[in-house]
C-alpha cells in the first residue's frame, strides 16, 4: 500500500489595517474589511470590529477565526459579569486582562491575534456626583497572541499599520479634534493604508465610542465604488509620473 502522507501545511498571509485613538469627544475605531488568503482576497466584507459590551469594542487583526472566537468569548464573560454584578459593566482593563490571560495560556498553539480592546468604564454614571471623571476616561489596550497587553491612547495594528500611523501622526492636535474631524482623520488614515498595502481594502468602517451613549457606527464606504477615490489615486499617479 502507498504510504500515507500528511498534506502540507497551508501558509496564509494575514493582512489588515485597524486603528484606534482617543480624543476629547470619545474614541475612534477605524478598520478596513479585506480578508486575505495568501495572494487571494478571501472576503471584502469582513467585520473587523466586534462588540464586547455596550461601551466596549474589540478589533480584529491576524487570523479571522482566532480573533472572532476570542473576542466573542470575551463578550460572553462580559455579559456574565453584568448578570452577576447587578448590571454593572466589566471594566475595559479587566476585559483586556482576561483576553490577554487566555492568549498567554495558549501562546504555544500558533494563534494569530492582534486586537485592540477599547471603551469606557461605568464608574460614576449612576451616581449623583457630576464631577466624577472616571467614567469619562477613555481606555485603549492592545493585546496579542503572545499575551502582551499594552495601554495607550493611539494604536494601529496590521500590515498597513505603518501607513495609517504616518497619517495619524500628521495631526499634532489630535486630542482636541471635533467628532467630525476625528472621524475624517480615521477615514483618511485607513484610505491611505489601503492604497499602499495590498492586503488592506474593501470597506472603510468607522466607529465612535462615547462615555454616555456607548459605541455606534458612524461611517462606512466601499473604496472600490467611490469615484472620488479613483480620481484622487489617478491624480497622485500623474503627479508621481
Quick description:
The protein is an alpha+beta fold. Helices cover 31% and strands 27% of the residues.
Give me the secondary-structure topology:
Elements: E1 18-23, E2 26-31, E3 35-37, E4 40-43, E5 49-53, E6 56-59, H1 64-84, H2 92-105, E7 114-119, E8 139-144, E9 149-152, E10 154-157, H3 161-168, H4 179-196, E11 203-210, E12 214-222, H5 227-240
Antiparallel strand pairs: 1-2, 1-10, 2-11, 3-4, 5-6, 6-7, 7-8, 8-9, 11-12
Helix pairs in contact: 1-2, 3-4
GO molecular function: threonine-type endopeptidase activity
Pfam family, one: Proteasome
Subcellular location: Cytoplasm; Nucleus
Would you give an account of this structure?
This protein is 31% helix and 27% strand. With 241 residues, it is α+β, with helices and mostly antiparallel strands. The protein has 5 helices and 12 strands. It has one domain: 4-Layer Sandwich (Glutamine Phosphoribosylpyrophosphate, subunit 1, domain 1), CATH 3.60.20.
Beta-strand content: 25-35%
Number of helices: 5
- Which of globular, elongated, flat, extended, rod-shaped describes the shape? globular
- Compressed to H and E, one letter per element, the order equals EEEEEEHHEEEEHHEEH
Question: What percent of residues adopt helix (DSSP H or I)?
Answer: 25-40%
- Characterize the biggest β-sheet: 5 strands, antiparallel
Strand order of the largest sheet: 10-1-2-11-12
Uncertain spans: 124-130
Q: How many E strands?
A: 12
Distance between the termini: 62 Å
CATH topology: Glutamine Phosphoribosylpyrophosphate, subunit 1, domain 1
Mean pLDDT: 86
Question: How many domains comprise the coordinates?
Answer: 1
- How big is the Rg? 19 Å
Active site: 16 (nucleophile)
Keywords: Cytoplasm, Hydrolase, Nucleus, Protease, Proteasome, Threonine protease, Zymogen
InterPro entries: Ntn_hydrolases_N (IPR029055), Pept_T1A_subB (IPR000243), Proteasome_bsu_CS (IPR016050), Proteasome_sua/b (IPR001353), Proteasome_suB-type (IPR023333)
Main location: cytoplasm
